Amino acid sequence: MTTNRQVLIEEMPKDRLTLSHFRVIEAPMPDPGAGEVLCKTRYLSLDPANRAWMQGATYRSALENGQVMSGFTLAEVVSSQDPAFKAGDLVECDGGWQQYFTKPGRALTRRDPRTPLSHLVSVLGVTGRTAHYGMASLGQPKAGETVVVSAAAGATGSIAGQIAKLAGARVVGIAGGAAKCARLVDEFGFDAAIDYKAENLFTALKRECPAGIDLYFDNVGGTTLEAVLFRMNLRGRIICCGVVSQYDTGQPAPGPRGVPGLIVTKRLTMRGFILGDEPELVSLADRELTTWLDQGQLIVAEDILDGLETAPGGLIGLLAGENFGKRMVRVS
């Protein structure tokens, strides 16, 4: 009899995430009820938000000890009790860290097959859509502007920076390590990259952004946001996508200096968002990202691990900055 491998939350972390916070089990195969669909996970997305969900309720309900770890999945329909889906269909949803799962048909979104399939998790999945939604639709970079992107070598930042370049902006990325910074410039077309591990951010931003910063795409918060605030131009825009510097800790650092003082004096606009707030913008992201990708205007970096059991270590490594581009797990 086929079983269902699952990764459970053994205990909520009170400080940094470790392997001991997870447990891998073999569970019985789920059986779809009326209106439900049985799915087999193909790819599991690993995202900094996975760790944020462990801190309590946010835009979604809080996770609990003993439950299957939540995570976004690209899956294949095995069998369906919903006439809208059939075996072999590709779907996406929050299927969790498990080989098989059941969901009501209304919770699934069908995806058209594509080669490579992993692009439906990276540039054409949550990652790319988030980058487009935040950068293109909300940030609206313009030709000649200076745009700064933090966590620029990550899944979202690497796409967001390229979108700003397509708009004609000068793009400066912030990343950790000389190798990542070199790739951003040499492969991904960034105009400059700052290694926050090797130099003072205030000094580096003054050097690379001599005319100030018009738009900042923030993935990290903390001291990086603070340094950028002091270089923002009058009526600049800040798009808050994530706060990865504050996720994997039991004691988040105090908020950055300059809030709200610099926001007031510089007349800045600071906006947060959650993907899906405006469905029509997600549809726009799908159309434009597909066009740019098909035309060869986007470079995609993927970091693919094999086997569901690699997910806990993969997430821990992601939070430590091991990856370049989109980290995911190939489950089947």
Largest pleated sheet: 7 strands, mixed
Q: What is the CATH topology assignment of the largest domain?
A: Quinone Oxidoreductase, Chain A, domain 1
Number of strands: 15
Structural class by SSE content: alpha/beta
Please characterize this protein's 3D structure.
The protein contains 9 helices and 15 strands. The chain is α/β, with parallel strands linked by helices and 332 residues long. The chain folds into 2 domains: 3-122 and 301-330, Medium-chain alcohol dehydrogenases, catalytic domain (Quinone Oxidoreductase, Chain A, domain 1); 126-272, Rossmann fold (3-Layer(aba) Sandwich), CATH 3.40.50. The strands form 3 sheets. Strands 3, 4, 5, 6, 7, 14 and 15 form a 7-stranded mixed beta sheet that branches. A 6-stranded parallel beta sheet has the order 10-9-8-11-12-13, sandwiched between helices. α6 (222-229) links the parallel β11 (213-218) and β12 (232-240). The longest helix is centred in the last third of the chain and has 16 residues, at 279-294. The radius of gyration is 20 Å and the shape is globular.
Brief sketch in words of this structure:
The protein contains nine helices and 15 strands.
